[in-house]
Amino acid sequence: MNLKEIREVINLMNENDLAEIEIERDGTKIKIRKGPAETPGPVLKSPAGYHVETQIVSSGAPEPAKSSTANRSQIKSPMVGTFYRAPSPEVPPFVEAGQVVEIGQVVCIVEAMKLMNEIKSEVRGKIVEIPVENAQPVEFGQTLFTIEPL
Predict the structure, then answer these.
(1) Higher pLDDT among residues 39 and 18, named by residue
(2) First CA to last CA distance, the chain
(3) What is the pLDDT of residue 133?
(4) Which of 50, 116, 139, 141 is most buried as measured by Cβ atoms within 10 A of its Cβ?
(5) pLDDT digits over 29-52, tens only?
(6) Distance between CA atoms of residues 126 and 100, nearest Å
(7) CB neighbour burial string for 123-141, b if at least 16 within 10 angstroms, e if fewer
(8) What topology does CATH give the domain 70-149?
(9) φ, ψ for residue 6, nearest 5 deg
(10) Distance from C-alpha of 101 to C-alpha of 109, rounded to nearest angstrom
(11) pLDDT surpasses 60 at 91
């Protein structure tokens, strides 16, 4: 994580009145806590009143060999909202599993605050998984589709 991302997390903490948050990504664990540090450790310079701790995470076991799923892309929700597979209940879904999608093709809609936001594919490929049910609430960053690039 870079300093900009850490500042964004701190802003998120302030907006949601959180005292502590822990994030693990790409083998690095970041823990941000309001108030003084409880334990010594690698500390990044952060806004006053916050303690940012980093740690390299290792399971101790060797990484498994990369499978064919390693090259798959994911379309993730860019916002919190409600996931819709079709523009209305009377028409078929934008895409189905097994279908090939093109770059820029609309794959679903995420409704947020009464606005219908079209979500488009950023890769050309075959849809291999749709892990979200129609009309289900989704979170920011939640996987909506898994695509195998062509």
Answers:
(1) 18
(2) 30
(3) 94
(4) 50
(5) 777 777 654 544 444 444 445 555
(6) 4
(7) eebebeebebeeeeebeee
(8) OB fold (Dihydrolipoamide Acetyltransferase, E2P) (2.40.50)
(9) -65, -40
(10) 15
(11) yes
- At 106, phi and psi to the nearest 5? -70, 130
CB count in 10 Å sphere of residue 106: 13
* H or E element at residue 70: none
**Chain centroid to CA 21: how far?**
16
Answer whether 0.90 is exceeded by the pTM: no
For 45, the token pair is 């310079």
DSSP category for residue 132: S
Residue 146, number of CB atoms within 10 A of its CB:
18
Cβ atoms of residues 32 and 11 within 8 Å:
no
Closest CA to 130 of 102, 96, 106: 96
Domain range list for the chain: 3-56, 70-149
4 Cβ contact partners less than 8 Å away, ≥ 6 residues apart: none
